[in-house]
Amino acid sequence: MSTRPPGAGSADFHRLWFENPARFWEEGFALGNGRLGAVMFGGTHEERFLLNEETLSAGHPGATHDPAVRPALEEVRRLIREKRYAEADRLAEDRLYGEYTEPYLPLGTLTLQTDLPGEVTDYRRTLDLHRAGALVEFTAGGSRFFREVFVSAPDNALVLRLAVEGPATLQAAFQLSSPLSSTIQAADRSLICTGHCPTHRPCWGSQEAPTYDKKSRPFSAQIRVVTGSGSVRVEGASLRLENCREAILLFSAASSEPGATFSHHLDTLEKRSFVELRTRHEEDFVPLYESCALELDGGIPTVPTDERLRRASDGNTDPTLDTLLFHFGRYLLLSCSRPGTLAANLQGIWNPYMQPPWSCNYTMNINVQMNYWPAEVTGLGACHEPLFDFVESLQPAGRLIARENYGCRGFCVHHQTDATRTAHARGVTPAGVHHKHAGRWAMWPMAAAWLCRHYWERYCFDQNADFLADRAWPVMREACEFLLDWLQEDETGNLITIPSTSPENLFRLPDGTDCSLSAGATMDLQIIRDLFGILLAADAILGKNDPVSTEVRAALPRLLPTKIGQHGQLQEWREDWDRPDDEHRHVSHLFGLYPGSEITPDETPDLAAAARKSLEMRGDEGTGWSRAWKVSLWARLRDGNRALKLLRQFQTFVQPAEEPFFDNFHGGLYPNLFSACPPLQIDGNFGVTAGIAEMLLQSHRLTSEGRPIVELLPALPELWASGRVHGLRARGALTVSMSWLDGSLKTAEITGQPGAVFLLCRPQASEIVTLDSTGRHTFGSSL
Description:
By secondary structure, this protein is α+β, with helices and mostly antiparallel strands. It has 18 helices and 33 strands. Helix content is about 30%, strand content about 25%.
């Protein structure tokens, strides 16, 4: 009987494969279940798994508010009103900002040393996205060796199966190590790691040692080796496997859990066969993954994934790589964000560094939001749940900052936070110094307001009034309370924000001075207008007639409108400071185009044309996540060919290095398809999946009667002439499947609640549709 899982080794739309082991972490296979993460290198004589557990972060909760901020804030506002922007920057740097975030940390490394009977040949490693499992296979000494691994959500464990076919037997040693303060003990067939996370770990750029004290969070991890033949014995702090034909390794970990908990857990798991464990894993994962799938016609190159990426980077057309990236983003979201787990951070759940870039934190001036852009539209609404849990966990600190620092009601959150759930402005650099122009990222209390859009999207996609009333409304209401108090009246009577930034850009004064703080940056007002409109819509749906809604209704028409500048561009700031040579990676002033819905080619053609001009001025270069964002922006402008051009540039091959390097203009993809900022920022993977969906289906607009407008193939590029997709979701609790041939829609099926009414727009035609008693509407021949 073959040891291969069904379908292993075949190339299709759902597999990454390589002909060599990974040399760098960015070449390995990412596996996870939302709690546990692993990157598999696929070595032959030495196999490595770099391990993560979602809660292993430095730091501990503490008070971060500072009442002294409030008088300093008023002085900063005065300087800005007097247009003394550079002075306002300096004062804010001294008085308004707190320290940087604490880092998310690696658990450690599982190493497998294997004695092989000869030279290695016929090597292949495969990551099966459909089943969320990896397989390494190779020949040595006339025997075929296999390693199959997955990380199970139902059993909360990494499961590794080792097997050999032929005359050889398995001869291997297992070791577990951790860069955290820890001890490793071997007992019977287990390796047990117990340790602590540092209370404080200086982040990247600092040479300080980590701090361990009584507040340090404990953690435990354990591996166990199970075999039906041969032997497993202890050798110091390692385990030695001898004369086996097959062995199973089980691994689990968590913070604040005693080792006995894992011993009991693994006791239970080892009573199950590998086939049973894999079946439980696949019964959990596969239905979620299969809920949405895309196929673009075109031959799949019979070369490894890294070679496909190199070819695409050199300009070779490969629509099936676009398909693979769409599926890979969904796979990653399923692997790092499940109900009951923490929200995905800058690297999802995967991090190998003790001082990771940007502390591997939660950056909320786009990055965390982008992580969840594909959740609803690609049928992974359950993966959205950790974000809502996370936002609500920020409310206590956000209320404190709003009240004590700013004298406002409600709650606010700034651009970064970490596992301690603090909400203050962070402007002190990793090296522990006050950074010039730190305000460009720090002085931005708009994160909670933007995150509220995700609550509204959840409601729009599933129409669950209980969710809207019980979870969304309280968060949105408090965020609006803060904004109502944060807004200031300008000299013309408009309501604006002071101080205000356009993340993470600087404006240049006529004398050449660069500054970060001003008044009424476009993104601020677009986010506020968006949330105010959402709150009023929710109030009407729920029949609340809430007093805060009355305040919002009065403030909404007074908000400073979006402006068009001297170059025909959408102004980024209240003043017309935009420069044609500014190629900054952020395009924050286009929030109203995407993910917002204030700007559309049909309802606001002048603003849409100005947004196009802004995109043209910015150019197509940028970080990986920036290019991903621009895919959706061009899709909203219904320019599929330009969106595809950005998608192609996103597919630029980036060579990994021993240490992470930074490049704000030349992002792309690492060999394992991780998005390269560089370094890794996983939001690019999620942003591209959302962007591809946006090219195929849009539903953000409403008719004058408030019905959803469902647009099929709104930004189909010429090179995607034929294909099919099933399971895309549209607002109004609709599911869309369709196929197209030679650029023309061939078939479509929309399902939802019987009686649901919407405007269906397909190329060259539109009609009001009412779903029949089966909750179905079809176009063309049956799908």
